[in-house]
Batch of 3 targets.
Target 1
Amino acid sequence: MGQAALKTLLTGNSLAGNGKDKIPAEPYDWIAFYGRDGMLEMRLKPAWGGKKFVGRWWLMEDGQICRNFGTTRQQEGCWRMYREAHTLRFVPSRGKAVEGNAIMLPGNQLVRIDAKK
């Protein structure tokens, strides 16, 4: 996917996934919200401790999506995303990144999760 398509797809929405070899379905292994201002929030499923990470996301001109949850470049990871039927496949292109599958969910799903607590 190109930079413009990814920006439209991600900005203000959430990605939810279940890892490399599973089709994304509830309960998700993780959910990440891509803020309009470049802020990124991700929460792991409760069975993994429910830990929340906050960082930044950006798009490269060549269509890579990148994120960093830390303060050093060693904590940065980038992917290329591909549409596959009803899912998105993300393939590592550099840094701390893992392969996986996800689906798009409208808006900030983390706010909805926090409201249920």
Target 2
Amino acid sequence: STNYTRDDIVKITAFELSPDESKIAFSAITPVGNLDIWVVDIDGKNLKKLTFQDHSPTNHIAKFFKRHKWRNFFKIDMYCSGWTKDGRIVFYQELTKYDIWGPNTISLRFWTINSDGTDKKPKTDKDKIFQRKPFDPIHRAEISCRSEKYKIKIILKNYDLWVLKDEATSPQKLIQ
């Protein structure tokens, strides 16, 4: 198993706190330029990568084409969309076609996976989604979430995850 660090992540774009508040699942842009799914403990330990679309030939070709400002390529991204009530991570895979007309979504596929990276399977209607808070498009500049259990606020700001402990005055980076 690979030991990942913050250096393996370019930008964190979205996150969701697990139902038991012990883990954070998130989407992050890899050095290849696509989004993959990651998970980390709420104390910043055990950073784990759960999807590997950055290894796919499709995304390596996309990076090459983008660099040369060429058109007509495909890109695959993985977006974290939440957790199931029984503690599985829910995410979706988006296939996008880039051409002279711009980006166009070709397909969306929804999946669930255990937080240890095992048992990835298509999402079904039996998968009950854990809803922590309603989506608020107005306050998207700072995306945050609170863990009552660990008495901290988790904040996504400047493409990084920060934690603010209840008694602290300044936030700390979650992943070092």
Target 3
Amino acid sequence: LGLKAEYAFQNPESINGPFGTLSLNLSEQGNSQQACGMVKISTLWGLGTTTNLFFIGSSNFNPSTGYTTIRTEGQGIMTTIPDKATYVKAEITITIYPGLKEGELSVEGFFTNFQIKATSIQYMNA
């Protein structure tokens, strides 16, 4: 059993961002759960920035609460116009609420506890 989902987020206090998307894939392999995906972060400050952070890690589902948590390191590229792209790493924390339609996302150095809302959810069979 697995899940492929897309979530959207935005800064509730500024139209300049950060805002973006979280692509998340969850899969069960034996007794463990794996998570992989990408966080795309954009801002409109100055001429704008785009950051793509890819991650692979484990996820933890708590059956008594229905929450799924993922804590992992993201690695990728930050592009700040007109500068050159730079390599970045950041700790990523994702909490998916019961029902899988909403949750919270934190990216070290960018933002903390932004609300995420599903834009698409697809269940997959193993």
